[in-house]
Write a structure and sequence with these properties.
The protein has 169 residues and is mainly α. 79% of the residues lie in helices and 0% in strands. It has one domain. The longest helix is centred in the C-terminal third of the chain and has 27 residues.
């Protein structure tokens, strides 16, 4: 158990480094239990978004949908590149960076929520661009593709995810 906790702490370090563009999925330990712990932590962080407008079930469903869609993109890309053995590390990276970005986003939104709509729009745009850039980095390194192609995959994933969320929720 101590070894798993140590590996998960190493994962946390690399998730954070990926969020600032200094690491990549192949540096993560190959440990499915660490991925599950990260997924659980992501759900817990996501539940902080539950309020009178969005219940816990809705937030959990959105996180579940996001993880499924990310897993499908990761699987398709790795299958295309014949690198399915990297799936666990790639999905771990995708879950981990979303966990960190959510952990940063929630308090930032709470701080600027009284600052006016224009500030909120700029902060939202900044966070979306940051999220897309980090997703693009992970896809680029996991699939071993060009920056332009990974950016297109990230952007298309984001647009499809937003349409699905609007459609279902």
């Amino acid at each position: 158990m101590a070894q798993t906790i140590g590996q998960w702490l190493l994962c946390l370090k690399h998730y954070l480094l990926m969020c600032v563009f200094l690491s990549s999925p192949e540096r993560l330990p190959y440990n499915p239990l660490c991925t599950l712990i990260s997924l659980f932590a992501y759900f817990l962080i996501g539940l902080l978004l539950a309020d009178e407008h969005r219940g816990m079930a809705s937030v959990s469903a959105q996180i579940f949908l996001e993880v499924i869609m990310l897993a499908l993109v990761a699987y398709a890309g790795l299958y295309w590149k014949k690198s399915l053995m990297r799936f666990q590390q790639t999905i771990s990276a995708l879950i981990g960076i979303n966990m960190f970005i959510s952990a940063v986003t929630i308090p930032v939104y709470q701080l600027v929520s009284n600052g006016g709509d224009s500030l909120l729009v700029y902060i939202t745009l900044l966070i979306v661009v940051w999220n897309l850039a980090v997703l693009s980095l992970i896809f680029k390194r996991a699939f071993v593709i060009s920056t332009q192609l990974s950016a297109m995959i990230s952007f298309n994933y984001f647009v499809i995810y937003q349409f699905v969320v609007i459609w279902f929720f």
